[in-house]
Amino acid sequence: xxxxxxTHKEFISNYIAQRLQxxxxxxxxxxxxxxxxxxxxxxxTHAPNMKVSIGLVRANLLNERELExxxxxxxxxxxxxxxxxxxxxxxxxxxxxxxxxxxxGGIQVDKFGNTNLIGIGKDYKHLDFRGPGTLxxxxxxxxxxxxxxxxESHSRRLFVDKCDFISVFGHGEGGDHRQRLGLARYNAxxxxxxxxxxxxxxxxxxxxxxxxxxxxxxxxxEVVENTGFKLIIPEQVPVTEGPTNEALETIRSRIDLEGLLx
Length: 262
Prior knowledge:
The chain is of the alpha/beta class.
């Protein structure tokens, strides 16, 4: 039965969990509580053979009743679960050809799923705002089987018609741009964009962002008002499915003991 007392972050964690499959190998940052919870929820509910890499530690957590709080890849508490620990300099060599799912963010996301973690402004040497940089997003999003864009806000400042800079190439200028550049060797670009208001996917021919579903607390009009490019809007836009009571119990009693998703 679908629950009715979830928080927005628990709701989105559940959506992420439902996208993940048994035997997936998930790579997620240690300090990203929503994607991390989604990965662990999938592992505890329907994907017992899934490998979960949190930061630099790969773990099998299925038999852990409660997970101690952890935020960073160097947190000693993570080591007790480890099947493997990767030296930071070798992390991208280790995940090549093994990682199946990755999550990326951005300070800008455009209508073709390109993302920007570099900075805001027209002159790279004099940016109005400097982002954290590409970090590992470029390598991980290229080598994985599929990746998801995950953002924690939804505004016209974030969702722009064209990114000032591109840190991860989504669909470029649309159409077959990704294929023409030889970037489709491992995956076909971002699966979808997960936001606090909705889910967006990409129209198969043009590769333009399309509204896939709206969350129960949002609406089509609210999404359109807060998106800085013209979305493709289907005639019927469903409501994103929420978590079950059992999923919420798993999140609250085994994963999110600090209440980070409340």
